[in-house]
């Protein structure tokens, strides 16, 4: 399997970011107020978000790619 | 100040370790962490009702969907969700593009696979909330009268770096059965087919808190599909295969077919069993005749497809407007050549008192699949052909608006509206195979109610 | 559509909870919303009072204290455990001065008498020593959701934590319901929701402990908590020496040194425990608060 070029670049960026995770400006537990604001949750209605993706996948050739789990928001 | 005491002092210095320790313990208190922690299991039972309507421009498809979903805590650390969805599709969709006397392709629309196509989806999800992890398993089944899909997915998220970073691993698998359902109005009724396809999806996602207002997410997905990936109802027109060159005959073949359908001739052929009898003899079977006389060939795609999708999501909070801008960029590469770019902005604005309004725009651009064309002069060397508009080169622009209002903690209403416009020449970075005849628009509207108790 | 600029009408609600007069003020778009918010916030205060008050029989704290009396164990919910963890942090940070097992001393010192007359019936050294035997957070062990009391006749008392926590929690509820400006005041334990509608911080005037009716200063609050320990209503005067109603788990005697301390912190519960710890530290209290890095007002 030969990975496409763009995918490889993003994969490299991914690894770099994952490794440098600890070098970010440390956000303390009590500084997470803004991140926990409901507006920071991209889709407040999960059913709606899933339906939207389903509609696109019925009309376009690319489907998915949005992580299956509720991963990665700063809110956790 | 009435009485100023000499021994009254004020002093502020940097946060000490002692204060950090107290803050840490205080933020673990549920009453304080409620707002500070999303992704915390809710102790409420939540019931959601969702209704959506989708309408395409012209005389094309409309979809009405209803969903009922229930979520509730199970034991100390689990949460269960069950949802049932029914959608009903009616109207018409493009089947084949015929050429007119001037050699210009015309879309031939046919009423859907059946007049009313019903789809029922049942899904159950079990989620485990760990101290620094979130795992879930989902099982689902989707049934139509010409399609079933059974699927499951697993995902596991680990939080690390004091919950400033997270990694999520996901795997999904689906097994689908495809066949064609009988519809007396369908133009070229075929002998029944029964085929299978399967899909495996691997996903890894990395989330990072960048600073107190910004988060980043990177996700990589690999999708591997195999089996019967063609559309059993779609046809493509191949000039070489037809007995006549319709461009020279100067006849509107699409008009003739329209007439055959509208006048009931097709219905008569199908219902009387004539089609069935014809199909029993290979040389006069409908698929043989349509291909070798009319040049109408079955949609035929490779039996394997690989997609590599990468997603970058940046979310930033703006204090001044109590809002957050979510930017998504998705790039998908595809062994079929149908690579795509998606750029989406969603701006969530908190207006206070439970109101939230979210305008958004989305732009999608797609390169055509290597075996796609509006019609073909001859069957390509690789042997694959498709004129499915979904594999064409095109771009699409969407405008969206979402409004939600929370009434207390136990009732929320959501409204969602979208206008989607697909255009051949919206494609970015050089036009690939496609044609304005496949341009269309749709509007989608949905309303949901969530009740918690 | 309502924008935050239009949230100009304050709604106040006065009620009594946790033995104190309480006020919830929210700036809401319309009265119905305000009623809804206030109702939910008040319900949260009452919920915590019902769960953690030591004056209510058969509540959660009562059952825990029954186990404490026997020297047994009991299973409690996550909220209870997280409060115990918070209390443990306070214990560690105060070198054992902030001790939620110090409740036994309350039975020895009777505060219900008028001030200045307490010297008439001071507890005996025997009474105090007896009470001190039953005190000590080190005798409490937590194992997942189970609390073990290693010696009998203990008692937990969440004074300095629960009322403050209730203010934070009620404020959070208001915030989650969309309130951007408001103030929760539970008997002087205050949590602000956002800034004042005019975008300036809330200006809180602190009463003068020695001169009732007068102010000794002000503190500005922006989404923060404020708590005061020590007040003019409850104190002892023994041989001319002022004693607060706060009892030291080390000596068994009321603390002396500071008359009152007001602390501002990101959460009210932190302000509450910080000012209690400062009182317990007596003359070292202010240095400790300065080391903690919080803004405070004090009188000795």
What does this structure look like?
The complex is a heterotrimer of chains A (76), B (453) and C (300). Chain A contains two helices and no strands. Chain A has 76 residues and is an all-alpha fold. Chain A has a domain at 33-59. Mean pLDDT of chain A is 67; it is low at 68-76. Chain B has one domain (42-443): monomeric porin ompg (Porin), CATH 2.40.160. Chain B contains seven helices and 18 strands. Chain B is elongated, with a radius of gyration of 28 Å. Chain C is of the alpha+beta class. Chain C contains eight helices and 14 strands. The longest helix of chain C is centred in the first third of the chain and has 22 residues, at 31-52. Chain C is globular and about 60 Å long. Residues 1-6 and 114-119 of chain C have low confidence and may be disordered. Chains in contact: A-B, A-C, B-C. The interface between A and C is small, with 3 and 4 residues.
Helix content of chain B: 10-25%
Write out the CATH superfamily name of chain B: monomeric porin ompg
Number of helices of chain B: 7
Number of domains of chain B: 1
Overall average pLDDT of chain B: 84
The CATH class of chain B turns out to be Mainly Beta
Q: Characterize the overall form of chain A.
A: flat
Concise synopsis of the structure shown:
The complex is a heterotrimer of chains A (76), B (453) and C (300). Chain B is mostly beta strands. Chain B has helices at residues 17-27, 30-36, 246-249, 253-262, 265-271, 274-280, 286-294; strands spanning 46-56, 62-74, 78-99, 105-129, 133-144, 147-160, 165-179, 194-211, 214-227, 235-237, 296-298, 304-318, 323-334, 340-352, 355-366, 394-407, 411-423, 440-452.
Task: Write a concise keyword list for the protein shown above.
heterotrimer; B: 453 residues; mainly beta; Porin; 16-stranded antiparallel beta barrel; two-stranded antiparallel sheet; 18 strands; 12% helix; disordered N terminus; C: 300 residues; alpha+beta; 7-stranded antiparallel β-sheet; 3-stranded antiparallel β-sheet; globular
